[in-house]
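Backbone-to-sequence.
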């Protein structure tokens, strides 16, 4: 019933008219087009309480479905009702699916293979490294990455997916005419080009604390499962994991140090039965996709091209090492260490994981494990 979309959008603007009441209207009238023009008595006979009937009568006087659709078009936003063929099929499996989704960008059939990747806003260098490596392999395995565009793990997951040439979807806890946090505005533009921004809230709705736990149900609901990389015991990522369990989705977690508060939540999830994920292959296995996707192609071998590169490889490993420590341990001048690390990063031999700390890139670790050991 795509022709009824503007009426879904109109009703979605009226407070108190949600999925259940829209279902009553659609069932009684046959379409929301007919329900939009119904009088007070007819709305009551459809099963609506008096307060909701008053809200609809009052709301219709201030709303024009055609003008609402025109405003969305001017903003580059598409509205999808739950009756639209493009509406994510898996999302409609959950009890409290949103009746209307607002989308900037595109939702594609291949997005049915989606994985929610979430975590703390205060990502550690370990969390950043794990997220970047796993997400890169997951999108090369044709999974779409879903997250919340928040600081930390969410933003890292979106960027890693885009940089690996994959698709990513960001769920908003506000209207799509604003970006929260504002610092991720440029990232949001990139997501539009390589996926979609999605919200159940119409333009003009500002972010509120209670909206973000609700949007998390959409992240997990439209995905095959949820992967938590780092999370405190009380965090939005843990809420997403709980919602995923309630929605019968797979829940996975990356183990971390028992001494790290950033890994307290993920370690608890594993203790409670979540699948521990040590590589992207574990995630594919948990999602029953191992046989359905082609293995990730191995990166070409990268060899050190100078004595300085060999020396620096000997002082780097899987744990982040600050450039000052590399300089002290190697005995090389700071200028040489800095320039050599920059060249090695461009060659893909090392990666900076924040605050001038470096690790050996995974491909080099696999080729030169004896050097690391």
């Amino acid at each position: 019933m795509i022709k009824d979309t503007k009426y879904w959008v109109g009703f979605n603007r009226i407070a108190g008219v949600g999925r259940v009441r829209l279902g009553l209207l659609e069932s009684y009238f046959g379409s929301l087009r007919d329900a939009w023009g119904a009088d007070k008595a007819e709305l009551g006979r459809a099963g609506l309480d008096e307060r909701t009937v008053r809200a609809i009568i009052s709301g219709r006087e201030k709303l024009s479905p055609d003008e609402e659709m025109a405003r969305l078009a001017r903003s580059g936003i598409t509205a999808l009702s739950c009756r639209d063929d493009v509406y994510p099929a898996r999302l409609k499996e959950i009890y409290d699916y949103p009746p209307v989704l607002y989308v900037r960008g595109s939702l594609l059939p291949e997005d049915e293979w989606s994985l929610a990747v979430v975590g703390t806003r205060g990502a550690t260098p370990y969390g950043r490294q794990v997220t970047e490596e796993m997400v890169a392999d997951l999108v090369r395995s044709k999974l779409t990455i879903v997250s919340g565009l928040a600081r930390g793990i969410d933003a890292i997951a979106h960027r890693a997916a885009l940089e690996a040439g994959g698709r990513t979807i960001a769920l908003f806890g506000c209207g799509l005419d604003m970006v929260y946090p504002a610092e991720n505005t440029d990232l949001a533009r990139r997501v539009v080009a390589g996926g979609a921004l999605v919200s159940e809230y119409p333009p003009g709705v500002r972010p509120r604390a209670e909206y973000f736990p609700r949007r998390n149900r959409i992240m997990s609901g439209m995905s095959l499962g949820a992967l938590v990389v780092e999370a405190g015991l009380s965090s939005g990522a843990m809420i997403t994991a709980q919602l995923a369990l309630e929605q019968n989705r797979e829940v996975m977690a990356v183990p971390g140090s028992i001494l790290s508060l950033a890994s307290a939540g993920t370690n608890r999830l594993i203790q409670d039965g979540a699948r521990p994920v040590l590589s992207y292959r574990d995630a594919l296995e948990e999602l029953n996709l191992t046989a359905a996707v082609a293995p990730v192609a191995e990166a070409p071998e990268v060899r050190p091209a100078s004595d300085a590169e060999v020396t620096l490889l000997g002082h780097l490993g899987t744990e982040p090492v600050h450039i000052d420590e590399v300089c002290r341990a190697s005995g090389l001048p700071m200028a040489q260490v800095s320039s050599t690390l920059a060249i090695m990063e461009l060659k893909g031999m090392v990666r900076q994981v924040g605050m001038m700390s470096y690790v050996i890139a995974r491909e080099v670790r696999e080729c030169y494990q004896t050097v690391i050991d």
